[in-house]
Amino acid sequence: MVSLHFLRHICCRYGASERYRIVENKLMRQKARLLLDEAASWSLLWYLYGKGNEELPEDLFVFPTTSHLEACQFVTVNHTAQLCLRIVQWLERLASIALDLDNKVRGSHVGTYLPSSGVWHHTQRHLKRGASNLKTVHHLDFDAPTREHSQQLPDDKKQDESLLEDVWTLLRAGRLEEACNLCRSAGQPWRAASLCPFGGFNLFPSLEALEKNGKNRVLQAIELESGIGHQWRLWKWATYCASEKIAVQDGGKYEAAVYAAQCSNLKRLLPVCTDWESACWAMAKSWLDVQVDIEIARLRPGGMDQFKSFEEAIERSPGQGDFASQPTSGPDSWPLQVLNQQPRNVSSLLQKLHSSDTVHEAVTRACKEQQRQIEMNLMMGDIPHLLNCIFSWISPSEDDENIFRPHGDPQMMRFGAHLVLVLRYLLADQMKDTFREKIMTVGDFIIHMYAMFLFTKQHEELVGIYASQLARNRCVDLFVHMMELRLNSSVHVKHKIFLSAVEYLPFSPEDDTKGSFEEIIERVLSRSREISVGKHDESSDITEQHRLQSLQKAMVIQWLCFTPPSTINDAKAVTGKLVLRALMHGNLLFREFALISMWRVPAIPTGAHTVLSLLAEPLKQPTEILLATDDHNVSENLREFQDWSEYYSCDAKYRNWLKIELANAEVSSG
C-alpha cells in the first residue's frame, strides 16, 4: 500500500509538472509571437517612412529604353506604385527571414529536393507498360495535362504539388532565383523559363532587380524587334491563361497560384493565401504589377487611347472583390483581363482584406489583431487614427477619473510610447497644425501612461527618458507627482528619481516646450509647505501633528542634497545651485519651525534637526563652488544657517534639561 501511494504521488507530481511545462511553453510562444508582430510593424515603419527615395543610377540607362527600365522609372516617381512596392518588399523580407529562421531552427529548408524529383517517373513507367487510362496523360511534355484534359498518376501529381508549394513559398519570399533553381534541379527547366522569361530576367520593378540584371541587352534586342512591351504583355497573358486553365481543370491550387502571381490574377492567387501577410502581399503585388502594365501599355504606339480605356474600366470597376473576368480578345488588351480584380486605392485594398467573401477567414480574423490594425493604419498614412487606436487600447475606462492610471497591455504601452517618439522624429518636417496637435497631445497621453507604468514597476531610472519628451507642464506634473509619492521611500529610490530628472532634463528653463529640473523642484518645495488638513489623526496631540508635518516638510530638502553626475552639463555649477537652494529653503523652514516649536515640551523639533542632518553633507562642498553661483546672498545664507545651527544646538540642550527637570518632578511627586 505504501508503494502504491508513493507511485500515485509521483504520478500526480509528474502530471502537474508536465501540465506546467505545456502552459509555460504556450505562454512563451505567445510572447514570441507578440515580439515578432512588433518587429514586423517596426520593419514596415522603416520601409514606409525610414527608407529613403531611391533614384535610378544613370549608368543603368540604355537607349533605346526597355519595358523593365520604364517600369522602374514609373515606380520611382509614382506615389501609389512606390507605396505598393515598399509593402511588397516589406512582406517579402518578413517571409524571407522566416524561411532563414526555420532553416536555422529545424535544419530544413524549402526546396531541399533530390535531383529530378519533378520528373513524372511513375507516369513514365505506366506509359512504358502500355497501360491506357482516359484520366492519365498519354505524353510526358509539360503541356500534356492541360492539352489532354488529364492528369499524371496520383504519386507524381502529389510530388508535383509539393514541389510547387515550395516554389510558391520562395516566390512569396521574393526569392525568384531560388525558385527557378529549384525547378531546374527538380527536372523542370521549362517551369523556370516560364517564371523568368527573356533569358532569366527578374522583371520586378525595383532598383535591386534592375541592378542585378545590369546592362543586359537581351530584353532590349527583343523589344527592338517586336516593340516595347509586346513580349511583356504576351508573357503576362500566357501566364494568365495558364493559371485559369490549370484552375479550371483542377491541376493544383499551388500551380495555379504560381502563375497567377505573375499576372495579377487574384482570383487564383488568394485561395492559397491563408494568412494576413500572404493575402496583403498578393493584393499589393498584383496592384503594383497592373499599374506597371498600364504604364507599359501607354508607351506603345496608340497606347494613349488604350490608356484612357483602362482608366474608364477602373472607374467602372467596383474594386471590392468582383472577380468576374472582362471580355478580352488576347494579349493586346492586357491588363484588362485582371483590371476589375484590383483595388482602386489603399483603402479599397484593406477593405478586401476584411472581406470574408474575398479572402480566407483566417485573414479576416487577423485584421482584428492590434498589430495588424497598426500596420494597416501605417499603410494608409492615417497617423492620427493610429494614435487614437493605441490610446483607446491602453487607456482606462470612461468612468475612471484618473486618465493617466496605467491600464491595458504593458507591451502595447511600451510599443505605443516608442512608436510616438519615432513618428515625431521621422515626421517632424511634415507635421501640419492639426496633425501636430494630434501627435503631440495624444502622443503625450501615451508616453505619460507608459512613464507612469514604469514608475509603478519601480523603474524610476527610466522615467526621465520618456518624461523629457512630454510637454512642459505634463513633464513637471509627472515628476512632482512621483517625488511626492516617493517622499518616504529609501534614499536609493529617491536618488534614482533625482538622476532620472537631472540627466534627461535641462537644469534651468530653456524654452516653453521643455520642463526643467528647477521648475520641478520649485513646485515640490512650494507644495511641501502647504498644510494638508486631515492627513493626521484628529485625536492625536496638536504638538505631535505639527511635529510630523515638520518632518515631512524637512524631508523634501533631500531632493536637493544629491550630487549630480559629472556627465551633465556644468555639473559643478549645478551642484552649487542645488546646495544654495537647499540652504535657502532650509533657512525658511528653520524660521517656520522656530515659531511652532516654542511649546515647553522636552520633545526635540524633529523637522529642524532633520534639515540640519540632511544639509550636513552638502555643506562640506568647497566654499568656492557655492560662491561660483550668480546669487549674491550666498554668504548671508551661510551665516543664517550657522546661526540656526547654533540656535537649535542650544534648543536641544534646553529640551534635554527640561526632560531632566520633568523627570525629577515626577520622582519628587512620587
Automatic annotation (TrEMBL):
Its main location: nucleus. InterPro entries: Nup84/Nup107. Gene3D superfamilies: 1.10.3450.20. GO terms for cellular component: nuclear membrane; nuclear pore outer ring. Keywords: Membrane, mRNA transport, Nuclear pore complex, Nucleus, Protein transport, Translocation, Transport. One of its GO terms (biological process) is post-transcriptional tethering of RNA polymerase II gene DNA at nuclear periphery. The keyword Disulfide bond does not apply. It holds the Pfam family Nup84_Nup100. It is found in: Nucleus, Nuclear pore complex; Nucleus membrane. GO terms for molecular function: structural constituent of nuclear pore. The keyword Membrane applies. Functions as a component of the nuclear pore complex (NPC). Belongs to the nucleoporin Nup84/Nup107 family. Part of the nuclear pore complex (NPC). This is Nuclear pore complex protein.
